[in-house]
Amino acid sequence: MTKICDNRTVIITGAGGGLGRAHAVEFAAAGANVVVNDINAVAAQTVVDEITAAGGRAMVNTFDITNYEACKQAVAETIEEYGDLHVVVNNAGINRDRMFASMTEAEWDAIMAVHLKGHFCLSSNAVHYWRDRAKSAESVSARIINTSSGAGLQGSVGQSNYAAAKAGIAALTLNQAAELGRYGITANAITPAARTGMTTAVEAMAERMKKPDDGSFDYWAPDNISPLLVWLGSEQSGHVTGRVFEAEGGKISIADGWRTTEGVDKGDKWQPEEIGAAVAELIDKEIPAQPVYGTF
Fold first, then answer.
1. Which of 22, 50, 186, 286 is the most exposed place for a label (fewest CB within 10 A)?
2. pLDDT at site 197
3. Is 7 left (phi over 0), alpha (psi -120 to 50) or beta?
4. Which residues pair with 185 in a beta bridge?
């Protein structure tokens, strides 16, 4: 029986556990060749062993997603092993939570490197490969799937570095979609909510997201998120690009971006003393944004 991702090859970063592992297993079950990237080689090999034991195809790669040349080599090794590359899933991430007033430069830089630069390095090298193929009149049906966060869409107290990086990823996705469609490449992002090592580091979240004991639907299981990515990575999704999908449990939604309101137009230069009334009118007419996580 034909599977939705038969003969497609995907690189998944941070796939040694959590959401990345779930994505890797789901892609493999859908027929894809899976490159399991993780800096933890043992964790990556464990996922590969799980996939191959189930009859799937997978290989380990431990490249550093913040190193451009390492990502270039990873793309080359993937193509050498499987003959092609179709999908990049930028999943790897870290947390360095701190209130903004106490945040260090190192905590800021670490998040920007892993999240923003990590999304750039692998995608850039994959895009060079796909663009060259497109310019040679070869058929390209390529996919970039980025990982943003609700924190990036609406902010999150104690995570200004993480929220800023994830907001950047959402904006990056829009740009990639606008620029890369001509080469047969789509770009979409997801904002997943699931039980992982990152989300359960806080005791309250761990309790909220724990697996039910009664065998009922495990709402926060990472596996719930992965079918959306598999579909986005398939040829069936070629008409969908530039979207940010939210996913948790059995729910999928699309996050609308910033929108310009009707505005107040004086038709002339504003005086500083006039601005207060104009802003009050704008706020009165606006649809309020969702509250920042952690505020009440």
1. 286
2. 67
3. left
4. 142
Q: What is the pTM assigned to this prediction?
A: 0.92
The total domain count for the chain is 1
Position 18 in a domain? yes
**Higher pLDDT among residues 225 and 204, named by residue:** 225
Catalytic site residue from 166, 226, 234, 237: 166
Of the pLDDT bands very low, low, confident and very high (cuts 50, 70, 90), residue 198 is: low
pLDDT band at 41 (very low <50, low <70, confident <90, very high): very high
What is the distance between the alpha carbons of residues 288 and 18, in angstroms, rounded to a whole number? 33
Residue 129 belongs to what domain range? 9-254
Cα–Cα distance measured from residue 27 to residue 57, given in angstroms and rounded to the nearest whole number: 10
Q: What would the pLDDT profile of 148-197 be if each residue is shown by its tens digit? A: 998 889 888 989 999 999 999 999 999 999 999 999 999 999 999 988 76
CA neighbor of 220 nearest in space, from 240, 243, 247, 245 = 247
* Per-residue confidence (pLDDT) for residue 199, from 0 to 100: 64
Active site residue 166: yes
Q: How many angstroms separate the Cα of 1 from the Cα of each of 30, 31, 115, 141?
A: 11, 10, 37, 22
Q: Which of 148, 162, 226, 237 is catalytic?
A: 162
Contact between residue 254 and residue 243 where contact means Cβ atoms under 8 Å apart: yes
Residue 201, domain member (yes or no): yes
Handedness of CA 201, 206, 211, 216 (dihedral sign): negative
Is residue 287, in this structure, part of any structural domain at all? no
CB 133 within 8 A of CB 141: no
CATH code: domain of residue 45: 3.40.50.720
Any domain includes 110: yes
Active-site residue (options: 72, 82, 123, 149): 149
